[in-house]
Design brief:
There is one protein chain. The chain contains 13 helices and 9 strands. The chain is of the alpha+beta class. The chain folds into 2 domains: 114 residues, no CATH class; 169 residues, Glutathione S-transferase Yfyf (Class Pi), Chain A, domain 2. It has a 5-stranded mixed beta sheet with strand order 1-7-3-8-9. Helix 10 packs across helix 13. Pfam families: SAM35.
Length: 330
């Protein structure tokens, strides 16, 4: 039995024969408001080489937050600050300036090396910095997270530089992180680790706690300080019968002793930098990163009070290192 044919009324057929009544162009996929928000959080590095001599790889460095130090834009976290120094050191770049930061549409073209503020949730590890490299010739993208502080330069470091870097990456990192987690106000922590303030009320406290947990997990801090991090949201006795303050005092004593050693090295030697008179090393970049970020903290923070009172040579050293990557006034 064949299919049943149903006649279509001519009035209905004439309606369908007129479709489409009108065609429309594709919807614009750009979001101007979102682009303006991204532009406000993006800061372009300045190159020292001619445009035709620039490398084929263009990068974006993702950091927690930034602040203005005189004419340049610096990051608020020492790990991010170190990589801001490092990318400039390796690529003949200078730091973003306050004037370049306010330039309109500065990030609309992805042909410049730039720094952008991101949430810690931007990576699977929930930790920054993150380096995103784009190769202009091959159109390939490489994303580097949990960045190795030494990278491929480990084998080229001398033994003294390796020792200094180890002190900074372990003892001073523990000191900084413990101070930020437990010895700063909520507003100070947010200023360092978040580019925008979280929502108010319950979500504010939740976001703050999640950001602190993410920071405690970075660089294995929570593994090295298990008891301290288990009491991250508590103020009672920690496992083993120790109080939080006892654990913090131990990290503080080690950190202050390390800073005092660096202060003695810089004050008693005639070199401008840690290992050489006129040549900066990776340990110089790392040490300057910590000092600059510490000085940006609130005055009542114990780690800042110690540096201001007992480490004048380290403060001078950080300004000396910073000057190497500060654009010259035109």
């Amino acid at each position: 039995m064949g299919p049943i044919s149903i006649p279509v009324p001519s009035a209905v057929r004439s309606i369908f024969n007129t479709f489409p009544l009108q065609t429309y162009p594709p919807t614009d996929n750009t979001d101007d408001r979102r682009q303006k928000t991204i532009d406000a959080r993006t800061f372009s590095f300045q190159s020292l080489v001619e445009k035709e001599q620039q490398q084929t790889d263009i990068f974006a460095l993702g950091v927690y937050n930034v602040y203005q130090h005189k004419s340049v834009v610096l990051t608020t976290d020492p790990e991010c600050q170190y990589f801001q120094f490092l990318v400039c050191h390796r690529n003949s770049l200078r730091f973003p300036t306050s004037s370049s930061a306010s330039s309109p549409l500065r990030s609309s073209s992805e042909t410049v090396n730039r720094m952008i503020t991101l949430s810690h949730q931007a990576t699977f590890q929930r930790a920054l910095p993150i380096l995103i490299e784009d190769n202009k010739r091959t159109s390939k993208r490489r994303i580097l997270v949990s960045l190795d502080p030494l990278g491929t330069e480990t084998t080229t470091l001398n033994e003294e530089d390796k020792i200094l870097m180890h002190l900074l990456d372990s003892i001073l990192y523990n000191y900084w992180t413990s101070q930020l987690l437990f010895c700063t106000t909520a507003s100070q922590f947010t200023q360092v680790m978040c580019y925008e303030s979280p929502a108010s009320g319950i979500m504010d406290q939740y976001s703050l706690t999640q950001a602190k947990i993410a920071l405690s997990n970075r660089n294995s801090f929570s593994i090295r300080n298990t008891k301290l991090c288990k009491g991250l949201s508590l103020s009672l006795l920690l496992p083993g019968g120790q109080t939080r303050q006892e654990l913090l005092d131990m990290l503080q004593e080690r950190g202050q002793r390390t800073l005092t050693q660096f202060e003695g090295k810089m004050s008693h030697e005639k070199n401008k930098f840690l290992l050489h008179h006129d040549k900066v090393s990776l340990s110089d970049l790392k040490l300057a990163s910590y000092i600059l970020c510490i000085l940006h903290l609130e005055d009542h923070t114990p780690i800042k009070s110690f540096v201001v009172e007992h480490c004048p040579s380290l403060i001078e050293h950080s300004h000396r290192v910073l000057a190497l990557y500060t654009p010259l006034d035109k």
